[in-house]
Amino acid sequence: MSDETGPARPDASGTAATAAETAPPETASTKTAPATGAGLTRRALLVGVGAAGGAGAMFAAMGALGLAPESQDRDFTPPRHSDFSLTGRGAAKVVVLGAGVAGLTCAYELGKAGYDCTVLEASGRVGGRNLTLRAGDRLDELGGETQTAAFEEGIYFNAGAARIAAWMVTMDYCRELGVPVEIFVNNNASAYVYTQDMSAPLRARAARADLYGYVAELLAKASNTGALDRRLTADDRERLAEFLRRFGDLGPDLAYRRDSRRRGFETYPGVGEGVSVGTASSLRDVLAANTGRYVTMDFGYDQVMPMFQPVGGMDTITDALADAVGRDRIRTGTPVTGVRNLPDGVEVTHRGGTGEGVVRADYCVATLPPHLFARLPHNLGTPVTAALRTPVPVSAGKIGLEYGRRWWEIDDRIYGGASETDLDITHIWYPSHGFHSRGGLVVGYYNVEENAEAYTGLSHRERRNRALTQGKKIHGEKYRAELRSSVSIAWRRQPYIEGGWASWPSFDAAFDLLQRPAGRVYFAGDWLTHLTAWQAGAMESARRAVTDLHRRVLQATS
Ligand code: PHE
Q1: Cβ(474)–Cβ(421) below 8 Å
Q2: Mutation test of ligand 1: which of 1, 504, 534, 539 has the most ligand atoms closer than 8 Å to its C-beta?
Q3: For residues 261-291, b (16+ Cβ closer than 10 Å) or e, as one string?
Q4: What is the pLDDT of residue 48?
Q5: What gap in Å lies between CA 251 and CA 396, rounded to an integer?
Q6: Which of 21-30, 289-298, 305-314, 400-409 has the lowest mean pLDDT?
């Protein structure tokens, strides 16, 4: 594993945990709460701020002081209509490039204040990498074939974004937009762990019990024989031993109970005492199985339970955003061909509709993937182009496998969660919804980088066959035999997206440069945050762009 500072990879949450531990807390915080010093009442402060900065600044200050009514819980004050209507100023015209999560969030927040937004979207649909496929949906690939989802009614496949951590701003938007959410099971003891160093898959509960058990045993014994006396007092040692006995299920001799009930049962206890799955392998064999990476997947601050998903499909979020923006403001099938700063505005040229067109506006927010913007003709300067070229597009892929029978629930007692493996499929995800319904959809791979690239160049049929061959090693023949239909996505081959996400080799001056507008062009996207590959990143970045733009407009017209 590399020490990359970019986003953690889905198959390397160890990296995520490390990044989380080393990241300075709340670096991106926009907390601006002024200290109310002695003799200055909050009211007086607000009146002063209002006189100097107008209603927008006053509302911002009120928000910072926790006085403004806000539907969103977080440290952000969206621009308000009153910023203009109370002051006689007019809102500006903004052209937003891209109707993904960042673009829609920008247009939504600007729309609250009455900004006149037009969203230009290159593809035929809104949502970007928030993509849910259902029966009849078509999926086109660059230089590839077109697939059509042949799922049964009610089955869906979140081909892009699929999980939300509780702390993410995505949850606030779900609340505000009335998008119902349900639990996304990101950790399931009944799912499997399988590495090529193992003779057969093991339930995650057994793989965890063995690793935790032996680690606890080693530490308890080392501590008991005095090896840690330089670090531990007698009291420390006692407390540590008390914890390790629980953590590892150790016996009185401080050895891992190799027949620990935590490993699970072939037949679970009932009237009878149950039949255990058997005893753990030796420490050496457990280490040789190399399961460590796969039993710590959910340890990171962004992967830990509970996680969430919108009921009915992830695109419920982007659909709600698009409705709130106003569908008439969003022009799909309109790829941008050039962006120019003018002395008093911006000019965006595009294809689509009736052919070449031009949109002029006061400001632009560009949310295209950086590697695609870098290819556009523009007059924003070479440092901007160089900066846009710095984040590296990362391959990511998924396959949705539809089954007519929920065998993972019926045969395996797996309700949501994922099996983890070092095979090139990396994960098998089981649905977190529709339990006990008739059919369902399993994600047969969700892989990145080399593993994703191995599938990207294949036809859908080849991807499916390869995924089935791999998955069979965990689930047996039914995995192939019972398949109903399938759809696969290779994000590098998605038109106008061309990547799962884009990752900064380091958060350097190029990252800082693009946080600021280039003339009248602002940038936004998950790639401009420390939440790369999360919708929350796109939303946080959109809010930053909107805040900066709005502040500037209020200043310019004061
Ligand atoms: N958000 C994506 C996921 O949850 C990609 C990602 C994985 C980003 C792990 C950061 C950490 O799978």
Answers
A1: yes
A2: 534
A3: ebbbeeeeeeeeeeebbeebbebeebbebeb
A4: 44
A5: 44
A6: 21-30
Range of lowest pLDDT (10-24, 231-245, 248-262, 394-408)? 10-24
Contact status, residue 508 vs residue 153, Cβ threshold 8 Å? no
Residue 336 phi, psi dihedral angles, 5° rounding: -75, 140
Of 529, 540, 548, the C-alpha closest to 23 is: 529
Among 18, 187, 303, 398, say which to mutate for ligand 1: greatest number of ligand atoms within 8 Å of CB.
303
**Residue 133 clears pLDDT 80, i.e. is over it:** yes
Give me ligand 1 centre to Cα 85, in Å: 42
Side-chain half-sphere CA neighbours of 64 within 13 A = 18
* Residues having CB within 6 Å of any atom of ligand 1: 7-8, 10, 13, 16, 163, 302, 533-534
Cβ–Cβ < 8 Å for 108, 94: no
CA of 272 to the centre of ligand 1 (A): 43
pTM: 0.88
Residue nearest to atom 6 of ligand 1 (CA): 10
CA 385 to chain centre: 26
Q: Which residues pair with 447 in a beta bridge?
A: 397
CA triple 200-159-502, angle to 5 deg: 100
Q: Whose CA is nearest to atom 2 of ligand 1?
A: 533
Query: Where is 269: in which H helix or E strand?
Result: none
Run of H or E residues at 512: helix 509-515
Judge residue 73's burial from the number of C-beta atoms within 10 Å of its C-beta, 0-12 exposed, 13-18 middle, 19 or more buried.
exposed
pLDDT, tens only, 488-513: 999 999 999 999 999 999 999 999 99
Average pLDDT rounded to a whole number, residues 455-478: 98
